[in-house]
Amino acid sequence: MLRLLAAAAVGGLVACQSVPPSPQDRVVLLPDPDGKVGRVVVKAAGEERTLDAPYAAAEIVPGGRIKAVTEDATVVAQRYAAALAARPPRPVAYTVYFVSGRDTLTPESQPVVAEIKAELARRPVPEITVIGHTDRVGKLEANDALSLKRAEAMRALLVGEGLSAASIEAAGRGERESLVSTADEVDEPRNRRVEIGIR
Amino acid sequence: MSKLTAVFAACAILCGQAWAAEPAPAGTVKSAKGSVSIERDGQRLPLAAGDRVLAKDRVLTGADGAVGITLRDNTLLSAGPNSTLTLEKFAFDSTTHAGTIDATLKRGTLSVVSGKIAKSSPDAVVFRTPSTTLGVRGTEFVIEAADRGDR
User: Fold this and answer.
1) Which of helix, strand or coil describes residue A30?
2) Which pLDDT score is estimated for A61?
3) Are the C-beta atoms of A171 and A148 separated by less than 8 Å?
4) I want to staple B115 with a disulfide (CB 3.0 to 4.6 A). Which of A30, B8, B75, B145 is the partner?
């Protein structure tokens, strides 16, 4: 009888050791397309660790112990394949330029318009912001109106290409955000622009 | 028009609100594969590419699901299968780039590419798992939250 109980006790101990490991949460820092990283500060149950190198990672067990490791790039690509494949396309920005005092594009801006069209065709759900600017020739209020007119001219062009007006946000910043700093009333073609953001 | 957008449009009309008066969304779904749904105001609805995401929404993916969402500050979020993500807080001023993001991954996997808010305000972007708080300073990363048995 005693032998049976001993066997049962040993059997019980063996069974305890095959309990699955406690759930772990993980975070892995990834390099951007230029290979650069920022930082993630990991806090768990009173402990704190900073991740600031490509593939620096932290594993956290319940109770909060943080284990700092460096992950292998291939392992990360496989383990998180579904989430990484579902990444939306990265936002891009373009600038087009306008003839002085008008809402007409310069001839040099036409190839940029072609690039924008090509980029939009690659995105199933494009959202566009169009922000108009002026140089400092003319009154503040007139430039507010002109910059908005330029943004709206770009929006009309994009709607003509088949985009819904609802997916395009247009705004004018007047002469407030010069790309190139000038004194008042200075003609500066580089400030007569519309900046187009696509996300 | 997706089912979610149709429900939303119906509510907007019934509530007598002009379409333009609804609060700015937090983001837009760029892709949805397999089983992807959203919980909002106690309702659970399927989620599709083109749908809006609002602050306080909970996004859920099934065993075959994956979803990609771009927030208004250009933060890119994407979740793999069996994931539950709640966007607790989102605010963004498109002129100053000030704002807040606070999101919790209860289970599953999430990839994040941070956007304008993280660039302008280092303490304004926080991601959480059941065990951890992550302060994000302008970077890309993946998070995994283990399945603790409850969705």
Assistant:
1) strand
2) 82
3) yes
4) B75
